[in-house]
Design goal:
Elements (H helix, E strand, L loop, with lengths): L1 H20 L1 H5 L2 H8 L2 H6 L2 H8 L14 H9 L2 H5 L13 H18 L2 H27 L10 H12 L5 H7 L2 H14 L3 H16 L6 H13 L7 H13 L8 H4 L12 H5 L8 H7 L12 H13 L1 H7 L1 H7 L5 H16 L1 H5 L2 H20 L14 H5 L13 E2 L2 E7 L8 E2 L17 E5 L7 E9 L11 E5 L10 E5 L2 E8 L6 E3 L3 E5 L2 H6 L12 E11 L5 E7 L3 E2 L2 H6 L2 E5 L3 E3 L5 E7 L6 E7 L5 E6 L1 E2 L8 E5 L12 E10 L2 E2 L3 E6 L45 H8 L2 H10 L4 H18 L4 H6 L4 H6 L17 H4 L3
Parallel strand pairs: 3-10, 15-23
Antiparallel strand pairs: 1-2, 2-4, 4-9, 5-8, 5-11, 6-10, 7-8, 11-12, 11-13, 14-16, 16-20, 17-18, 17-21, 19-20, 21-22, 21-23
The chain binds a DNA duplex through α16, β3 and α27.
Length: about 800
DNA sequence: AGCCTGGAACGAACT
DNA sequence: AAAGTTCGTTCCAGG
């Protein structure tokens, strides 16, 4: 079994990446651990930046960048993550995307995935596995899309060697955890599958592992996406499987007892360490994965997985050869770690991506697909490990909307996709509440995610005039600074019952549970999501996973990620994705941490003095608003507390006076951040804010929202759309209000980019990629970031680029790389 | 009897 | 190394 490989993988995590990266080495290897480890908090907040930036490629903050896409990153980099976060990169999600498109995308993946995953290892494994399985897809798909050239089947081998190297056990260290990304991988794999033709290959890798065993079936394809990897990863999936399983937990099992354990399990994040020892305990607990239940339960498990492979392999190989990949991997790792989600992988990827990007040059070479595949592969490896586990071959009937899944190569879940492309736009009409207490497996369901105003979130696909129903996919994604990816510690949970009016179907992709909801023409392609709850997996269980690098502690924010795959006349599939505003899933955090949902101003002249209104939750009479300017390395260059109008402060709103900037002579916009602080460790996420030269024309923000700000600071600030929370760091997360982000964007961009510290390479690549595709977007939006974040809003509109979806990085978070870059 | 929820206890992980 | 704090996870209890 793959298992063999697994072992290796596990090792990799740490080491491999670095190794792989080669370049990355520097990056990588280690860092991950350290840096990454930081508590989630840090990440959330800020620091990340520094650490991140420095260490990680993308840096948490900009997670977005990362991976996904080079593109994104590219863009991203600069970008503040925020925008980036989303989709960016890849925009094109479309499978088909023009190759160029893909390329970029590919890059993207690379990003994300790539690095992280310790890929190498996995790769190896994949190879074996994959080939068999995946290949189908790959081949098929690939052929379609790709030029033959790309595919190099041979891949496998070559890489392996390297891989091995990577694998060194030694590597394992914490970093390894990072590697965990496997999760990501999963996702990614999944994605990969779908996404591109190539993807398939890519995908395959991951899945393949799983897949193969499970299924080779074509159908899987669909599932595969889902299931395949996921299965693998499945640790979750299968109940037992769950990670821990993999861990061998069984052995461990004994450990747990009544309470799972967190205790035991808990490891210190800081270190890297997850200590194995602990893990055992944890593992015992079965749940870890709850996921298992998740996936398993339902139906889903497909086994599918399958597929990927060759192409993936090839890609991987290429990547390796290029080194790029390697680099990426290495570095990112840590950064990624942070990201917790299931898919830690994602994180990994991302970062890597970033790095990769840098490296990328190669990317250019690669087809996106390849990239992806590559990444996937890695992931796959992880998966495999997990895979071993369970797998049920589930098969569910596919949803009505076959289309979506139909394509074998749907983009991996960690790919960044645009929310709109051409005439189509996937938009969240009603956002979910910012707080939703997730339930543990040991608890009963805590119900479906609701909307702030009552009712439930709703999503609509605009511009689709066909009569064929489609499938809306929903999964739980991360909400940190890094690129959007499946969350390793949370899974979507299907809610059924009298109160649920929306039919849904569960599928598992790469360890990520995906809820499929029909989008019917008769409903104007709109779906009310009243069937989606959120399941919390025990940190210990997930962290034990082989590839997982993210830590669960304080990684309690998620986003609902919606995807739709639209069949195109040319046989290709256009994939769009949009992520909701961040949702705090921790009981405690939801009750204590201040949350900024909107800010009335995004920018203001250096003189300050203007008022800004923040709306959100958990504001206290003694809350403080701290403005911070960070250096590229994350260090705080300047920090000052804004004056609050206490009389106007309410639990849901704060009115403050924007403090003057430290340097009144700036000649170009300077991006800073601010956060609300209720106490030592009770801080909101960083919000972006931009200081404008005193005499500079104001920048108009686009207020996406309606928010009315009363105060816009100077001209610029008007818009108020609240920025996403962390533009900076988390920005990504916030797709919703993208608008806000936009604003900040400008200034930020420059800085950010630096901050982000993208790898040089990334830049270039990005451009290439993007150039083609994104160009428009950039232009109009002007601010890539903005565009990115915004879900669909104005910016997007601006983007009207004809280009395919891909192009548009649209999606909320991700900005097209291009945009970023430029700046 | 069972599902939801809100609260909070328990104990490990962090500071 | 010890003490206090922070959090994750499990339990309880009421609706």
């Amino acid at each position: 079994m793959p298992s063999t490989s697994f072992p290796v993988l596990s090792k990799f995590p740490l080491g491999p990446p670095a190794a792989v990266c080669g370049s990355g080495e520097s990056l990588g290897p280690a860092p991950p651990s350290g840096g990454s480890m930081k508590s989630a908090e840090e990440e959330h907040y800020s620091y990340a930046p520094s650490s991140i930036s420095s260490v990680l490629p993308p840096g948490p903050a900009h997670p977005s960048l990362p991976a996904p896409c080079h593109d994104l990153q590219t863009s991203g980099p600069g970008m503040p993550a925020p925008a980036a976060s989303q989709p960016p990169g890849y925009g094109g999600a479309v499978d088909t995307g023009p190759s160029s498109y893909f390329l970029s995308s590919g890059h993207i993946r690379p990003n994300g995935a790539p690095a992280l995953e310790s890929p190498r290892i996995e790769i190896t494994s994949y190879l074996g596995m994959h080939h068999s399985n995946s290949q189908f897809f790959h081949d098929v798909e690939v052929e379609d899309v790709l030029p033959s050239s790309k595919r190099p089947p041979s891949t496998a081998t070559l890489n392996l060697p390297n891989l091995e190297a990577y694998r060194d056990p030694s590597c394992l260290s914490p970093a390894s955890s990072l590697s965990s990304r496997s999760c990501n991988s999963e996702a990614s794999s999944y994605e990969s599958n779908f996404s591109y033709p190539y993807a398939s290959p890519q995908t395959s890798p991951w899945q393949s592992p799983c897949v193969s065993p499970k299924t080779t079936d074509p159908e899987e394809a669909f599932p595969r996406g889902l299931g395949a990897c996921g299965l693998l990863s499945s640790p979750r999936h299968s109940p037992s499987t769950s990670p821990r399983t993999s861990v061998t937990e069984e052995s461990w099992l004994g450990a747990r007892t009544s309470r799972p354990s967190s205790p035991c399990n808990k490891r210190k994040y800081g270190l890297n360490g997850r200590q194995l020892s602990c893990s055992p305990h944890h593992s015992p607990t079965p749940s870890p994965h709850s996921s298992p239940r998740v996936s398993i339960t339902d139906d889903t498990w497909l086994g599918n997985s399958t597929q990927y492979t060759s192409s993936a392999i090839v890609a991987a190989i290429n990547a390796l050869t290029t080194d790029n990949s390697l680099e990426l991997d290495g570095v990112p790792v840590k950064a990624r770690k942070t990201a917790p989600d299931h898919c830690p992988s994602v994180a990994l990827k991302v970062e890597p991506a970033g790095e990769d990007l840098g490296t990328t040059p190669p990317t250019a070479e690669f087809l996106p697909e390849e990239f992806t595949s590559f990444q996937h592969i890695r992931k796959g490896a992880f998966c495999d490990q997990y895979l071993s586990v369970p797998q049920h071959p589930y098969q569910w009937a596919r949803p009505r909307s076959p289309t979506s899944f139909a394509s074998p190569s749907l983009p991996a879940l960690d790919w960044q996709l645009p929310s709109r492309s051409g005439p189509y736009e996937l938009r969240i009409e009603v956002q979910p509440k910012p707080h939703h207490r997730a339930h543990y497996e040991t608890e009963g369901s805590r119900g479906a995610v609701k909307a702030s105003a009552g009712g439930h979130p709703s999503v609509q696909l605009h511009g689709y005039l066909e009569n064929e129903p489609l499938t809306l996919q929903l999964f739980i994604g991360t909400a940190d600074d890094r690129l959007l990816r499946p969350h390793a510690f949370y899974q979507v949970h299907r809610i059924t019952g009298k109160t649920v009016s929306t039919t849904s179907h569960e599928a598992i992709l790469s360890n990520t549970k995906v809820l499929e909801i029909p989008l019917l023409p008769e409903n104007n392609m709109r779906a009310i999501v009243d069937c989606a709850g959120i399941l919390k997996l025990r940190n210990s269980d997930i962290e034990l996973r082989k590839g997982e690098t993210d830590i669960g502690r304080k990684n309690t924010r998620v986003r609902l990620v919606f995807r739709v795959h639209i069949p195109q006349p040319n046989g290709r599939t256009l994939s769009l994705q949009v992520a909701s505003n961040p949702i705090e899933c921790s009981q405690r955090s939801a009750q204590e941490l201040p949350l900024v949902e909107k800010q009335s101003a995004a920018s203001c002249p250096v003189l300050g003095g203007k008022k800004m209104v923040l709306s959100g939750h958990n504001f206290l009479q003694d809350s403080k608003v701290i403005f911070v300017e960070k250096a590229p390395d994350g260090h705080h260059i300047w920090e000052t507390e804004a004056k609050l109008d206490r009389d106007l402060c309410k639990p849901n709103s704060l009115v403050l006076e924007i403090p003057p900037f430290r340097n009144q002579r700036i000649t170009s916009p300077v991006q800073v951040s601010f956060y609300v602080c209720n106490g030592k460790r009770k801080r909101s996420q960083y919000q972006h804010f931009t200081y404008l030269p005193a005499n500079a024309p104001t920048i108009k923000t686009e207020p996406t929202d309606d928010y009315e700000p009363a105060l816009p600071c100077g001209p610029a600030s008007q818009g108020l759309s609240p920025l996403p929370k962390s533009c900076y760091s988390q920005q990504l997360a916030m797709p919703p209000d993208p608008g806000s982000c936009l604003v900040p964007g400008f200034p930020p961009c420059p800085q950010r980019s630096t901050v982000v510290s993208l790898p040089p390479s990334a830049g270039p690549k990005m451009h290439d990629l993007s150039s083609t595709t994104y160009s428009k977007g950039m232009a109009s939006p002007g601010h890539g970031h903005l565009g990115l974040q915004r879900p669909a809003g104005g910016l997007l509109a601006a983007q009207e680029t004809p280009t395919p979806a891909g192009v548009h990085a649209g999606p909320p978070q991700q900005p097209p790389p291009a945009l970023l870059r430029p700046q």
